[in-house]
Structures are given as C-alpha cells and as structure tokens.
Amino acid sequence: MSIEENYLIREVRECEIFIVNSLMEANFHPEETILKCLLSNNEQSLTDNKLRQIDEDQRKIIEAMILNLPCQVAVDKCSEKIIGVNIMIASENPNVSINNRSINVYEAYPPKCELLSNYFHIMNDMIDKAKLFGKFPKVKRALEFYAIVVDKDHRRKGLSIALMQNGIEYAKSNGYDLAFGLFTSAYSKKAAERVGMRSVMDIDLLKYHDPRGSLIFSKSYPHNVASVMVTLIKTF
Length: 236
What we know:
With 236 residues, this protein is an alpha+beta fold. It has a single domain (3-232), classed as Gcn5-related N-acetyltransferase (GNAT) (Aminopeptidase). It has 9 helices and 7 strands. It has a 7-stranded mixed sheet, with helices on both faces. α2 (17-27) crosses α4 and α3 packs across α6 (114-129). The protein starts with a helix and ends with a strand.
C-alpha cells in the first residue's frame, strides 16, 4: 500500500501547535544527536526547574516556527492523528537585496535556558560553516528542513521521505531556490539522499570542544558525522 493510501500530508493548522509539540517531545528531542549529547553532558546540573525551562523554551520556539514559517504534517487517515511533521525555516541570502525578510525565530524568541541557547548556537554555527550562500551565490531564498519527525509507531514506511518530497514541492511552488538541512543521523541522511539531496559539508562532532578543551559530543560515536545536505530547486 502506498503512502497516499494511508497518510495525508498537508499544511499545519494553528490549533495543532500543542499536538506538534507533543510529537516533538516524544519523538525528536530525546533522540536528536546534538541535543541528546548536551543533555547527557550536563545531566548532573539539570535540576527539575532547568528541565522545565528547557521544555518551555522548546515549546515556545516551535510555536513561533509554526506561526511564522512553513510547516507540514503527516496525518494517519485511519486514526486522523498527526503522526509526522516537517518544520521548516526560511532564510535569505544576506548579500542580495530582498524585501520582507523572514523572521529569525532564534533572535525573536531567544531561549531562557543557557543549554538550549548553546544548542541552537551550535546548530546554526554548523550551518554557517557550510557557507551555502557562498557556494550558491545566485540563490536568493533557501528553505531549511529544521526537524523532520515521525512517530515511532509509523516509522520505516517512507514517511520521512514523503515529508521531504512535499517540502521540496512546497519550496518549488513558493519561490525558494534551494532546500537544505542539517542531518545528524545515518537514517535521516539516507532519507535525504533518496529525495535527491547531497552533502556539501560533513561535520565530525568529535572535533567540537568546550572552553575547557573537553569533547562536547564524545557520546555521539559511532554516529558522530553530521551532514549539511542540499538540493537546488532552481537551475541557474
């Protein structure tokens, strides 16, 4: 049976923010390599208050993304439940004159928790090092796949691939020149390759150190290579 027979992929609705956040909390935050390592490294100092603040910060920034940026969900036709999501972030070439630039959610809704602030800083730093607008100087607008999440009970059915394919179609229809993402698991990288994305930069997480010189992502091994992957939407 095909994805289309069992699932519907559509734009998220504002009333579904809580559902998407719950999906992220159960199926993304505990598994994403970079955040998982940061939480593990700071386990001794994570009080209940800090953990609550992390959850609150995550919910607020996901809500901001859903309200201000593109987001698609996968719905199980049988149960009518949301079982997948692709949260996307729009960005523009800083070297090109563009009216009405997209909101920078990290600046508009900065997390109160230092650990989460470091998490977003590290993720953005990795993407910045890929120098996408330098590699593709004619690209004006790019669409980032920030988080592609599928409920554990619905995995290995091709939903992450379908969500990315629909995200690429959204990019084509809405004036984006490039789609990209930072992929931190072997499975997500393979799924990205299936939709035609290719790596423009691989990042060895074992080369990241804290100010004291200690490895930040020692517990990421053997899955310690993250990749910035892209697909050109517009041919120049």
